[in-house]
Write a structure and sequence with these properties.
single chain; alpha/beta; Rossmann fold; Helicase, Ruva Protein, domain 3; 5-stranded parallel sheet; 19 helices
Length: 472
């Protein structure tokens, strides 16, 4: 994505001159004839750098710079000034200006200053993107994009993925849990025209409605208690790239409506702001539910489904392409070996036959779990059938719930001394744990030893019955 530069000057000749030099270098240039117009442009979308004249009627360059920094201190502001006002420009740098350039200046001087500012801006943005990737549990490693397997089913899917990757259209990936929906989404991004731009993911089921909206759209300073500074959301950070909305069917109706607007108008508002911001993001959504059924039950908006279902992709269950299990097992064993610093273990023909005869309710994710466990626990260089067979069709092949104790205040008896119903105790414990983790559903589910989807279904049921707060 080409860097975006906002040029602010009340003199048309200077705006055009600076804009032409920057455009020839490959930058996207937007011009504004004064401070108010510049702030209006900034409210609509992000810029990598702002270049402004110091002396302008109305709002001068210093006031504009200070206003920009109050809104978003990550945008570098370069001041253009005449020789007689160098002292003022130096003073402005102490107040937060990134640099200044004196008039008259050469094209080389201008481009060198702007390039340094753009590099600084992009480093800050990359840092914000990395933080967002870490907070969502995402990986930046290219190894996460591998589509392993040579069966007819996988070859057909690769063909679909290649067609989808070449487009900018919205994608809806459906399939059972563990079939590799996020891996497919990352593959699409890595092989798309947006590959050099950010890829961000967010698990819609892991956050409460208020936290999800803040994560998606960002928030202004003072938007709510604890919002002590502006925060950019996933849409803003992924501008020019791809945003994965995992478990899209879990989001609340109000958030569905806001998401629909982003897809229709390519704009959004931060929480606490009424100003629309333009954004260029490719949406990839995933779901392990039957969305047609969810629509019939009024749990999911039909118009949002149509907006998402532009390029549908259905991932096969592992039991439908068991011929790929040998390749997948070898891949996972090699991954574990690299991570553990060991030579990769091998798997016997009998053990492979055992794996291929299993139904795999947890799909590829369950196979990965089994392979990692076998690589660690196998005594010799070979993984045998006797080692892995007991793990299949048993609780041992399922993820073990967290055993972390949860300290909550939920009395088991009423003040009158009468026993309470189990459902009431369960509800109070879950609500108290949610509050302990500030509404973070993934951490709450892990602490309670239940799945995020199970937690979401319980909360949805209780909200419909008005037994818990709608903000949970």
């Amino acid at each position: 994505m080409m860097p975006r530069v906002l040029v602010v000057d009340d003199k048309e000749l200077m705006r055009d001159s600076v804009g032409t030099m920057l455009s020839r270098k490959g930058h996207t240039v937007v011009a504004a004839n004064g401070g108010e117009a510049a702030l209006d442009r900034l409210s609509q979308r992000d810029f990598d750098v702002v270049i402004t004249d110091l002396q302008m009627p109305g709002m001068d360059g210093i006031t504009l710079m200070q206003t920009i920094r109050e809104r978003d201190d990550s945008i570098p502001v370069i001041l253009m000034t005449a020789f007689a006002t160098v002292e003022t420009a130096v003073g402005a740098m102490k107040k937060g200006a990134w640099d200044y350039i004196t008039k008259p200046f050469s094209g080389d001087d201008l481009l060198a200053t702007v390039d340094r500012a753009i590099e600084h801006s992009q480093v800050l943005r990359e840092n914000q993107v990395l933080k967002a990737q870490v907070s969502s549990g995402g990986s930046t490693a290219s190894s996460g994009h591998d589509m392993v397997g040579g069966s007819d089913v996988m070859n057909r899917m690769r063909g679909e993925l290649r067609q989808i990757a070449g487009s900018h259209s919205t994608v809806l990936i459906c399939g059972e849990s563990g079939t590799g929906k996020e891996v497919a989404a990352r593959w699409i991004h890595a092989n798309s025209p947006r590959a050099s731009a950010p890829f961000l993911a967010i698990n819609c089921a892991a956050l409460s409605t208020s936290l999800l909206e803040s994560e998606l759209f960002g928030h202004e300073k003072g938007a709510f208690t604890g919002a002590d500074r502006l925060r950019k959301g996933r849409f803003e950070l992924a501008d020019g790239g791809t945003l994965l909305l995992d478990e899209i069917s879990e989001i609340a109706p109000d958030t569905q409506a806001k998401l629909l607007r982003v897809l229709q108008e390519r704009s959004f508002e931060r929480v606490g702001s009424s100003e629309s911001r333009d954004v260029d993001v490719r949406i990839i959504a995933t779901s392990n539910r039957d969305l047609d059924k969810e629509i019939q039950e009024n749990n999911f908006r039909q118009d949002l489904f149509f907006r998402l279902n532009v390029l549908p992709l259905s991932l096969p269950a592992l039991r439908d392409h068991v011929d790929d299990i040998p390749d997948l097992a070898d891949h996972f064993l090699r991954q574990t070996a690299v991570r553990e610093g060991r030579e990769p273990k091998r798997i016997t023909t009998q053990a492979l036959a055992c794996l291929q005869g299993y139904q795999w309710p947890g799909n590829v994710r369950e196979l990965e779990n089994i392979c990692e466990r076998a690589a660690v626990l196998a005594d010799g260089e070979m993984i045998t059938e006797s080692l892995i067979a007991p793990w299949l069709n048993s609780a041992g092949s399922l993820a073990t719930p967290s055993t972390e104790p949860v300290a909550v205040e939920a009395p088991l008896v009423e003040t009158a001394g009468e026993c309470r119903r189990l459902e009431e105790v369960e509800r109070d414990v879950i609500v108290a744990t949610l509050r302990r983790f500030n509404g973070h559903r993934q951490r709450t589910a892990a602490a309670l030893g239940i799945g995020v989807r199970t937690l979401g279904l319980k909360l949805k049921k209780w909200k419909e019955a008005q037994l818990v707060s709608a903000s949970l």
